[in-house]
Design brief:
By secondary structure, the protein is mostly helical. It is built from 24 helices and no strands.
Length: 450
């Protein structure tokens, strides 16, 4: 009896050993609308399909609840993110209408609407307005950490690098996490701390909670790798970003840039075309036009340059400031005098490092080299805040110095440009190498006396 019972137990135990274990419960994925809401609330990029759902939900809700200020602010912020991701001009006006409606319903104690207006101003490249709105939000919500990334970006665009650093210190005292690490990386880049920036972005991507957020940080990591001329690393990051989020158009344009530098022109053209079709950004049109020009396809380049002008006009209807990209285009491919006029006005409005570099180059192209050098120095000299390690900035300064017959500094800055990134432009990197060859080697005896 005992032996039979024991045998039965052994058999039962063997059967139990081979029964399939119950599958672990999988976490239920949040619905698209709440996912987009969570991303906007956390101040991180949201997926485009989720944004579309959230916008539809908010519009339906607000038809029955038009006095809900928070919902108007959320709808406006969703429109801002959608506009930023797609570059559709009409969305900027929709965003402003919703955010202003929120403030009309609740003029006070409405920092969410102020944050939304700050984000909208940044998307439009209106850094003064962005600073004002971010400061208004912080006045009403002093410990609102989500306002600080907006303020930091605005101060950077205005050339106030010290102010951006102080704001970053306050941000890191209040909060931590991927969004803060990504904003810190941008500040580190402006300071020329490329390794610190790359490490912060790597940490942000590893800790990101949603695919769209992680893809955005990987795209920025790709930009950093591109800026230092590391083509394999840049391509790896850009491809990973697109694989995770197929709507990551900046990463597709980044792939085009890297593939062009690798001599894979057909693939580069395809990437640029896809990015530009899905996100009609004037900057992409400029890069694609220059790629066509580098290949000797001048008619195709002109098509892109015409598109650039048309896109700037379209975006201006939505309040977007396109004078920086238009000025860059005019300096190299259009009328340098027009570029100088556009960029002088831009410098008066928002004197950031990018504008200083573009204005200096436009003045050089227009024949005003002495004045051009003053702005090139602002863009590249640490004493003036120009700490970004930028190959285009160094190239521009070197070419201006060459025109002024300051051959030693010219040689040094052209060498620096090619050392930072030998592939920085399909058009200008070859010109930098040609200019260096023309300058020749410095004399072993030093400069002549007198």
């Amino acid at each position: 009896m005992l032996s039979g019972a024991l045998a039965g137990c052994l058999v039962l135990g063997g059967v139990l050993m081979f029964l399939p274990a119950e599958p672990p419960e999988r976490p239920v994925a949040a619905a698209p609308g709440p996912q987009a809401r969570a991303a906007l609330t956390a101040g991180v990029p949201a997926a485009l399909p989720d944004l579309t759902v959230l916008i539809g939900e908010q519009e339906a809700y607000l038809r029955d609840h038009p006095k809900d200020a928070k919902s108007w602010a959320l709808l406006g912020s969703a429109y801002v993110e959608q506009a930023r991701r797609t570059a559709e001009a009409a969305l900027f006006s929709k965003a402003e209408d919703a955010l202003r409606r929120s403030l009309r319903v609740a003029p006070k104690r409405n920092p969410d609407a102020s944050d939304g207006l700050a984000a909208l101003a940044l998307a439009r490249r209106d850094f003064r307005a962005a600073r004002e709105h971010a400061e208004a939000a912080l006045k009403e919500r002093p410990k609102g950490w989500r306002s600080y990334p907006l303020l930091i970006e605005a101060l950077t665009g205005l050339g106030d690098c010290k102010g951006a650093g102080r704001a970053l210190d306050k941000l890191t005292d209040l909060h931590s996490g991927p969004a803060v690490q990504a904003r810190a990386a941008a500040v580190y880049r402006e300071r020329g701390w490329r390794e610190d920036a790359a490490a912060a972005l790597s940490d942000a991507a590893a800790a990101a909670g949603a695919p769209a957020e992680r893809a955005a940080y990987l795209e920025r990591a790709g930009e950093l790798a591109w800026e230092r001329g590391d083509l394999p690393d840049a391509l790896r990051h850009f491809r990973a970003a697109v694989r995770i989020d197929p709507d990551q158009r900046a990463a597709q344009a980044g792939q085009g840039r890297v593939l062009a530098a690798l001599g894979r022109s057909s693939e580069a053209l395809s990437m640029y075309r896809v990015a530009l079709e899905r996100r009609p950004d004037p900057g992409y049109a400029l890069e694609l036009g220059e790629l066509y020009e580098s290949l000797g396809l001048r008619d195709a380049a002109r098509v892109q340059y015409d598109l650039l002008r048309a896109l700037v006009r379209q975006h201006a209807a939505g309040g977007v400031d396109g004078d920086l990209v238009l000025g860059r285009f005019e300096a190299d491919h259009g009328d340098p005098a027009t570029a100088v006029g556009l960029l002088r006005a831009e410098w008066r409005r928002q004197p950031g490092i990018e504008v200083a570099d573009a204005l200096g180059w436009a003045l050089h192209r227009a024949g005003s080299d002495e004045e051009a050098l003053r702005f090139a120095v602002i863009a590249t000299d640490k004493e003036h805040g120009g700490t970004v390690r930028s190959a285009p900035y160094a190239y521009h300064r070197g070419m201006i110095e060459r025109s002024l017959k300051r051959y030693g500094p010219a040689r040094r800055h052209l060498q620096e440009a090619l050392r930072i990134n030998p592939y920085f432009s399909v058009l200008h990197a070859p010109q930098a190498r040609a200019a260096l060859r023309a300058l020749g080697e410095p004399s072993p005896d030093g400069p002549p006396e007198g």
